[in-house]
Write a structure and sequence with these properties.
Elements: H1 9-17, H2 33-39, E1 42-49, E2 55-63, E3 69-74, E4 76-78, E5 83-86, E6 88-103, E7 106-123, E8 133-140, E9 145-153, E10 160-167, E11 173-174, E12 177-180, E13 186-193, E14 198-205, E15 215-218, H3 228-256, E16 266-269, E17 272-275, H4 283-291, H5 296-308, E18 312-318, E19 321-326, H6 336-345, E20 352-354, H7 355-358, H8 366-379, H9 390-412, H10 417-436, H11 442-460, H12 468-483, H13 488-494, H14 521-537
Parallel strand pairs: 1-9
Antiparallel strand pairs: 1-2, 2-7, 3-7, 4-5, 5-15, 6-7, 8-14, 9-13, 10-11, 10-14, 12-13, 16-17, 18-19, 19-20
Keywords: Membrane, Transmembrane, Transmembrane helix
Protein name: DUF2207 domain-containing protein
Domain Predicted membrane protein YciQ-like C-terminal: 277-495
């Protein structure tokens, strides 16, 4: 069974007589019946219940000279204890001497003297009950109406009048002229309707004639209540978020599983040993690949690597300060990011600098160095250029704008404002998505796997497997790769008994201050402080 309170035929009668309205003529006297027919307000209405369950109304109101007509129809009407029906009026047009508009929870029609034409659609009018569909309307007129002429058609010609009563409450009588023709069109004609009269009309059509679209809310509900459309919207949102989370988890798991083997970091030929990295990868580049970011540790490893490769010389001044000296100029053998690190330490052709001098505010700019390291990884095809991931950003912005607009619009009209919130949250998720997606390319994943395999090879390496004359060079060339993973202490401990003078040159060839030592015991305690100091020159956000 379908019951429409204030919809379908109810809307018809609202249109015709101003039910539940304040349709009051401006003139004080109330005409008698005969005078009303000739001189009063007349209404002619044509109504159509579409197959979508939308009531399409066209009406013509004629107001005598000196009168005014106002009809205010509430879009929220009681629907039993603790509930109310909510209607929506759309597609409003007005011609002639009248206006029609929705103001909050009211639909208002105003007509000045003359003839006015109105058309509009009433939504949310249909609810389903077992066995049949009924149009049921009970309303009270708040104006004297001279005459009403109305017609109603529906998708089914099998429409029947169940009941029609007219008159004062508790004293009503059958309607004088309401009938349905053989073609299924309902006609209603009434004259001399008095202020205070009530109309109670019930029509019946076959079940399933139109889809149910009624909206019933609990009394006191707000636009931000949880309703069926809201639940549907958040269900879709949760499914989308679950799909995105699964995609991100799968992608990141693939990244984390890149590489399971071991690479021997030492190349042995003709009784000699030398360190080698996979695909000639550099320590700073490897550090960027491992965590998909350029951090202070990667820069510190690059500084050590520049010293190991004889571009810089490092010598301690005290326990907390070191002098960095130019050995060779930055040439074409260096990558752009290495030149950026070199220039950050020794700008403008400076020959030497102390770490304490570099600590001066604004002396070292970390931003350009980080950008150069990331750009190098992108140029070499190891990382995806984040600026090219525009689709999620534009999609997120679009959804966010639509969501905010929908929230405001729905809050001011039909409710379900949380639907807009769900759309906006989807936009936020789209904007955040690139932050969680891995940025490594297929080539980058391969390199990352090789770097991790190299790390496992370094962990497994033993000093005595390397000829004494080659130990210092292997130790030094591999040291920056252990800095990026925080395992420099373990690497130095492995080579702590290395005699740096075994190559006939006292001390480490790139780090001064330990020329008299015959092992790396003191160096092992000193080196971590240097790394910490260099990392402090390139803090995050600088």
């Amino acid at each position: 069974m379908l019951t429409l309170r204030g919809g379908a035929v109810g809307a018809l009668l609202i249109t015709i007589v101003g039910l539940l309205a304040m349709g009051t003529p401006a003139t004080a006297p109330v005409a008698h019946a005969q005078e009303a027919v000739a001189d009063g307000i007349t209404i002619v209405a044509d109504l159509k219940l579409s197959r979508e369950g939308v009531l399409e109304v066209k009406e013509q109101i004629t107001v005598p000279e000196g009168d005014k007509f106002t009809m205010t129809v509430p879009l929220r009407v009681p629907a039993g204890e603790g509930a109310e029906r909510v209607f929506e009026v759309t597609d409003i047009t007005a011609e002639g001497a009248g206006t029609a508009k929705v103001e909050g929870d009211l639909f208002t029609v105003r007509a000045d003297p003359g003839q006015s034409s109105f058309s509009y659609s009433v939504n949310n009018t249909v609810s389903e009950q077992e066995g049949t569909q009924l149009f049921h309307w009970v309303g009270v007129m708040n104006a004297d109406i001279a005459s009403i002429t109305a017609s109603l058609i529906s998708p089914s010609f099998e429409m029947g009048i169940v009941d029609c009563k007219l008159g004062p409450p508790n004293a009503s009588k059958p309607c004088a002229d309401v009938h349905i023709e053989a073609d299924g069109v309902l006609y209603l004609e009434q004259t001399d309707l008095n202020k205070g009269d009530a109309i109670d009309l019930t029509l019946q059509i076959p079940p399933g004639t139109v889809p149910a679209n009624a909206e019933i809310r609990e009394t006191g509900s707000t636009a931000f209540d949880i309703t069926a459309p809201v639940l549907a919207a958040f269900a879709v949102l949760l499914l989308a978020l679950a799909a995105l989370a699964a995609y991100v988890f799968r992608a990141r798991r693939q990244q984390a599983q890149a590489g399971t083997g071991t690479i021997d970091p030492v190349l042995r030929e003709d009784g000699k040993a030398q360190f080698t990295s996979p695909d000639g990868i550099l320590p700073g580049e490897a550090g960027v690949l491992l965590d998909e970011s350029a951090d202070a540790t990667d820069i510190a490893a690059t500084v050590v690597d520049l010293a190991v490769r004889r571009y810089l010389w490092i010598a301690p001044i005290s326990d907390s300060d070191w002098r960095i000296t130019r050995v060779n100029p930055a040439d074409d053998q260096l990558r752009p990011y290495e030149k950026a690190v070199y220039e950050a330490l020794l700008p403008g052709g400076a020959e030497a600098v102390t770490v304490s001098e570099l600590r001066a505010p604004g002396r070292v700019q970390a931003g350009p160095v980080r950008e150069a390291m990331l750009a190098d990884a992108v140029d070499r095809g190891a990382l995806i250029d984040q600026t090219r991931r525009k689709l999620p950003i534009w999609l997120g912005i679009g959804l966010l704008v639509v969501g905010v607009g929908a929230t405001i619009g729905l809050a001011l009209t039909s409710g379900h404002a949380l639907v807009g919130v769900a759309i906006a949250l989807a936009g936020v998720a789209a904007l955040l998505l690139p932050r969680f997606l891995p940025t490594r390319t297929a080539h980058g994943r391969t390199l990352t796997g090789q770097v991790r395999a190299l790390q496992r090879g370094l962990d497994a390496l033993r000093r005595d497997s390397i000829p004494p004359a080659d130990q210092e060079l292997v130790f030094s060339r591999a040291l920056p790769f252990t800095v990026i993973t925080g395992r420099a202490d373990n690497w130095i401990r492995t080579f702590r008994d290395l005699d740096p003078s075994a190559d006939r040159h006292p001390g480490l060839y790139w780090f001064g201050g330990f020329e008299r030592d015959r092992n790396l015991h003191r160096f092992a305690g000193h080196f971590p402080y240097f790394i910490t100091a260099v990392e402090g020159l390139f803090p995050a956000g600088n």
